[in-house]
Amino acid sequence: MTTGMVLGKFLPPHLGHAYLVDFARHYVDELTVVVGTLAAEPIPGRRRYEWMREMFAGTGTRVVHLDQELPQDPSEHPEFWRLWEDALRPLIPQPLDYVFASEQYGWKLAEVLGAQFVQVDIDRSVMPVSGTKVREQPLAHWRYLPPCVQSYFVRRVSVFGPESTGKSTLAKDLAEHFHSIAVPEYARTLIESQQGRIEAEDIEKIARGQAASEDALARAANRVLFCDTDLLLTTIWSDWLFDGCPDAVSREARRRTYDLTLLTDVDVPWVEDQVRYLPQDRTNFFQRCETELQAHQRRYVVLRGSWEERFQSAVQAVDALLARTD
Ligand SMILES: NC(=O)c1ccc[n+]([C@@H]2O[C@H](COP(=O)([O-])OP(=O)(O)OC[C@H]3O[C@@H](n4cnc5c(N)ncnc54)[C@H](O)[C@@H]3O)[C@@H](O)[C@H]2O)c1
Q: Is Ribonucleoprotein given among the entry's keywords (predicted)?
């Protein structure tokens, strides 16, 4: 039986790393992937370790987490190699036959661990991507990211506002225009299943369903996810209808962040349907929406005018968002 090891920071994991790990696991019988992380790095180590576990689940690959604060380059410490050997030995099989890497340091690392070095793609010619490039411009390297990592970098756009102002249609139209997807409004699903009734206890179910749907679809989006409403709007509805909102829902609403919010104004005709509550209060509701967006320091754009004008303003705002590199 042959054994091997891949070591990396995976900051974040991308398809170049996936190629290296897949190569290695097809080369040996038993592969260990060591996810080495430092506390000060920009993406939490635990998350990277979980991503790598998810990416190779069911393949027989062992993924382990090394979160010791080790020097990162031989120039940083006179005992660099001994420190790394001591840290790695307890995590890897004995004996270790092969070390796989696309780095020159692989030669020395293999020697220290008593293994042979297998060089994979030093020039990164198969998957021309790096962690630095992904962190600098995640959207430009989208196709090199696995779905779990895409969901971390996806830009979230919330379509927000009073009822009957075209939110659902706009979210779907935007999704189509940007070749992505829209998260449907979960309240509608729930309320329709109750023949139009809503009670205070439904607020938590609505919030849970909305959040679950958003998180599920974040993995399937193409760079930008359009959310037909979000939990902040659920808290406003809860206040409006039931004079208060469960703490858990308010907390979760504060925790969730959006890169852009499109606030739809009420200068369009009212359309009646089963899931409608406040025809006479749309203007007040709109004002409350704007106040809450400001209080939560959300970046937002108000959409006004005809359906076409709203759509064009929304496209412009999303284009600007996708062009941003921050
Ligand atoms: N610099 C050294 O001499 C040295 C020696 C021993 C250990 N280390 C430590 O090893 C750890 C891992 O470092 P890292 O920066 O190599 O991790 P990394 O996450 O950048 O890379 C992990 C592995 O994937 C390979 N890889 C990256 N992009 C690839 C692509 N597009 N195609 C194919 N393969 C690709 C890398 O070459 C490496 O072998 C760090 O903690 C580092 O300090 C460094």
A: no
Residues in Cβ contact with 189 at an 8 Å cutoff, skipping those fewer than 6 apart: 209
Range 154-323 has CATH code 3.40.50.300 = yes
pTM, two decimal places: 0.92
ipTM of model: 0.98
Kindly give, in sequence order, each residue whose CB lies less than 8 Å from that of residue 161, ignoring residues fewer than 6 positions away: 167, 233, 262, 263, 264, 265, 266, 286, 289
CATH T-level assignment (fold) for domain 3-138: Rossmann fold (3.40.50)
Cβ neighbourhood burial of 73 (10 Å; 0-12, 13-18, 19+): exposed
Give the tens place of pLDDT for each residue, 186-219. Answer: 999 999 999 889 999 999 999 999 999 999 999 9
Q: Where are the domains of the chain?
A: 3-138, 154-323
Closest ligand 1 atom number to CA of residue 72: 43
Q: Tell me: the pLDDT tens digits for 117-171?
A: 999 999 999 999 999 999 999 999 999 999 999 999 999 999 999 988 899 999 9
Query: Within 6 Å (CB) of ligand 1, which residues are found?
Result: 7-11, 16-17, 19-20, 36, 72-74, 84, 101-103, 105, 109, 120-121, 124, 127, 129-131
